[in-house]
């Protein structure tokens, strides 16, 4: 073999041994259109906030669990915002069921029936609260009206009503603390005559007692005075605590 050719081959092999090793780079596959749809956007599209408010109102009024298809049939423009279902799952006013894939309004109190209402009122009383606002409870359960009337008839709750006879506040009634009063006592109580204001004053006069007098809080004017308050004269000299003289306390300068 030619000496020059052999030398060239050896030099070529030497360059190959000294050449840096370059690893083959792997290019990650691009996300498909289906995968990108699962990424939750950070900002809602315009008008999506109004749709969320409308959806919460519908869930609150119905009180039922609705699917995304149900909401799409009830809310115009729901299908134009594919990101809405994912935002609804994170909303604090909505309770999402991942198994049934339904949305339900999440109120302040979990009330679905009369027993739940009675339980909430009892827990409120046990916690030291007096009663609960009717509007607050109605916000948790829209069909609270018939339940309140039924519980009131059974004496399980007390209902405070306004001038329009509409419920204002509800109170739990512990039936175990109710005392049964005999019919004889009720009859005796009803037979006790009540005294009117005029008759009461006559009875007090007969007994030599005085009725309630209204005492004026205005100071009486001094006879012969001008009604003007005199200005106190400034005292000169030293001021001494005379009442502390026996305790050997140095007079104040």
**What distance separates the N and C termini?**
130 Å
User: What can be said about the biggest beta sheet?
Assistant: 3 strands, antiparallel
Helix content: 25-40%
Give the amount of beta strand, in percent: 5-15%
Average pLDDT over all residues: 78
Q: What is the overall shape?
A: elongated
**Alpha-carbon Rg, integer:** 44 Å
Q: What is the H-and-E element order? A: HHHEHHEEHEHHEEHH
The order of strands across the largest sheet is 1-3-2
Class computed from helices, strands and strand pairing: mainly alpha
**Annotation, overall tally of beta strands:** 6
Instruction: Please give the count of helices.
Output: 10
Spans of 5+ residues with little confidence (pLDDT < 50)? 29-38, 247-253
Question: Outline of this structure?
Answer:
By secondary structure, this protein is mostly helical. Helices cover 38% and strands 9% of the residues.
What does this structure look like?
With 253 residues, the protein is mainly alpha-helical. Helix content is 38%, strand content 9%. It contains ten helices and six strands; from the N terminus they run H-H-H-E-H-H-E-E-H-E-H-H-E-E-H-H. The chain has helices at 3-18, 33-36, 48-62, 68-74, 84-89, 114-126, 134-140, 144-153, 183-191, 197-206; strands at residues 66-67, 94-97, 102-105, 132-133, 157-161, 167-172. The strands form two sheets. It has a three-stranded antiparallel beta sheet. Strands 4-6-5 form a three-stranded antiparallel beta sheet. The protein is elongated. The chain starts with a helix and ends in a 47-residue tail after the last helix. Residues 29-38 and 247-253 have low confidence and may be disordered.
């Amino acid at each position: 073999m030619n000496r020059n050719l052999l030398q060239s081959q050896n030099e070529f092999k030497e360059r190959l041994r000294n050449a840096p090793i370059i690893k083959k780079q792997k290019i990650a596959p691009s996300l498909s259109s289906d995968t990108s749809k699962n990424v939750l956007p950070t900002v809602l599209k315009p008008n999506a906030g109004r749709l969320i408010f409308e959806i919460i109102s519908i869930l609150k009024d119905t009180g039922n669990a609705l699917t995304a298809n149900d909401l799409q049939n009830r809310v115009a423009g729901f299908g134009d915002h594919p990101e809405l279902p994912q935002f609804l799952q994170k909303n604090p006013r909505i309770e999402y069921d991942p198994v049934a894939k339904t949305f339900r309004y999440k109120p302040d109190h979990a009330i679905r029936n009369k027993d739940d209402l009675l339980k909430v009122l009892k827990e409120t009383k046990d916690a030291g609260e007096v009663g609960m606002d009717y509007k607050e409870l109605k916000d948790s359960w829209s069909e609270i009206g018939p339940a309140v009337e039924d519980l009131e008839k059974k004496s399980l709750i007390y209902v405070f009503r306004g001038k329009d006879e509409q419920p204002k506040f509800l109170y739990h009634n512990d039936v175990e603390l109710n005392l049964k009063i005999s019919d004889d006592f009720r009859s005796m109580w009803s037979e006790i005559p009540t005294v009117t204001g005029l008759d009461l004053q006559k009875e007090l006069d007969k007994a030599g007692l005085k009725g309630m007098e209204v005492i004026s809080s205005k100071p009486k004017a001094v006879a012969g005075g001008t009604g003007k308050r005199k200005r106190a004269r400034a005292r000169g000299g030293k001021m001494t605590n005379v009442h502390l003289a026996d305790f050997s306390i140095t007079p104040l300068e």
